[in-house]
């Protein structure tokens, strides 16, 4: 088999490989008469991503009649696409070949000024994975420029592992997920709202829906979209059901992303009258004989010297978070193990 990628698409192919490498450690290659698919699964088998490259993406497309299924280590193929910035200016074409014995794949980068780089990548044992999901019938759908989602996620630090999408008939709220084990005095609740008019398509069934999913893999796909001006479409129903994302805009390329969501419904965090998250109970210290009573804090929270007390500073710091909605209405979900979307099959013919 032989696939030739022209210079204008080499960078796109390299960015796709880099995006998939942030999701899984093994790259599945599946070729047929119509397209070459690059697929990856997360280690927990709760996330799936695929780039389908049509014939029009290549300048030469030669696939065997019976098709091909193989698997490469991500570490090996990343050696060929270590640096993708500027590849469209320095690489004239990329040649991907699979030997007749299907023992290895050869990646050849033909640079300008006559320089050629060749990488021989060993194919590892391939196992058939049965994976199925519906692409239609979702009750909630939003579609718009991928840059809109990228600008929203900039407000969340890299330490945030899960986010919650809350869809209502008029807007979309993106919030960081906070479980009940987190210390409320050390947690910043962040929420960003996007009006429905900002999207090209906005469909919410009834009162909308809410899903919580892992952010790490989703960031990887948005990183691929950066600079390509792709259109992103999200489909989801409710908690516990998969979230489906697709990205379009590059001729000859189709991409899809599926991830599991938390199954538990939202649970409200206990709150105090002031609107901050419920405070901890502290033991009242025993006063030793002969020592004066500590001064009582004033209603404004100031200490004996007129400066704000430590408790007042903590409460004020909490209210200075990036939370847009009132903390009285902020909700959380209890974490559960992600459901497995993929099961291994012993029959490779399926």
From TrEMBL:
Domain of life: Eukaryota
Region feature Disordered, mapped onto this chain: 263-314, 327-350
Biased composition, class Polar residues, residue ranges: 268-277
One record GO biological process: mitotic intra-S DNA damage checkpoint signaling
Compositional bias segments (type: Basic residues): 279-289
Cellular compartment(s): Nucleus
Compositionally biased tracts (Low complexity): 298-311
Name of one Pfam family that matches: Rad9
Protein name: Cell cycle checkpoint control protein RAD9A
Species of provenance: Ixodes scapularis
Lineage, highest ranks first: Eukaryota, Metazoa, Ecdysozoa, Arthropoda, Chelicerata
């Amino acid at each position: 088999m032989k696939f030739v990628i022209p210079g204008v698409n080499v960078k796109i192919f390299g960015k796709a490989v880099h995006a998939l490498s942030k999701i899984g450690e093994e790259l599945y290659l599946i070729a047929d008469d119509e397209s070459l698919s690059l697929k990856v699964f997360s280690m927990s088998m709760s996330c799936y991503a695929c780039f389908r490259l049509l014939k029009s993406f290549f300048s030469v497309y030669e696939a065997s009649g019976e098709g091909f299924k193989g698997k490469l280590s991500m570490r090996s193929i990343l050696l060929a696409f270590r640096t993708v910035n500027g590849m469209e200016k320095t690489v004239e074409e990329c040649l991907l070949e699979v030997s007749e014995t299907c023992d290895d794949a050869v990646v050849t980068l033909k640079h300008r000024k006559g320089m050629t780089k060749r990488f021989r990548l060993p194919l590892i044992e391939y196992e058939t994975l049965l994976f199925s999901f519906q692409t239609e019938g979702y009750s909630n759908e939003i579609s718009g420029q991928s840059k809109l989602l990228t600008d929203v996620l900039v407000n969340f630090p890299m330490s945030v592992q899960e986010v919650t999408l809350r869809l209502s008939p008029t807007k979309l709220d993106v919030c960081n997920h906070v479980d009940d084990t987190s210390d409320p005095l050390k947690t910043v609740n962040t929420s960003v709202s996007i009006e429905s008019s900002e999207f090209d398509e906005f469909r919410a069934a009834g009162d909308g829906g809410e899903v919580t999913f892992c952010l790490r893999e989703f960031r990887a796909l948005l990183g691929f979209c950066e600079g390509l001006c792709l259109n992103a479409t999200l489909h989801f129903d409710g908690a516990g059901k998969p979230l489906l994302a697709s990205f379009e805009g590059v001729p000859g390329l189709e991409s899809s992303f599926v991830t599991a969501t938390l199954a538990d419904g939202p649970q409200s965090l206990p709150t105090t009258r002031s609107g901050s998250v419920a405070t901890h109970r502290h033991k009242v210290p025993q006063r030793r004989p002969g020592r004066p009573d500590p001064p009582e804090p004033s209603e404004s929270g100031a200490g004996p010297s007129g400066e704000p007390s430590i408790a007042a500073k903590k409460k004020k710091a909490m209210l200075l978070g990036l939370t847009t909605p009132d903390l009285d209405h902020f909700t959380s979900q209890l974490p559960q193990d992600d459901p497995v979307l993929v099961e291994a099959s012993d029959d490779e013919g399926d």
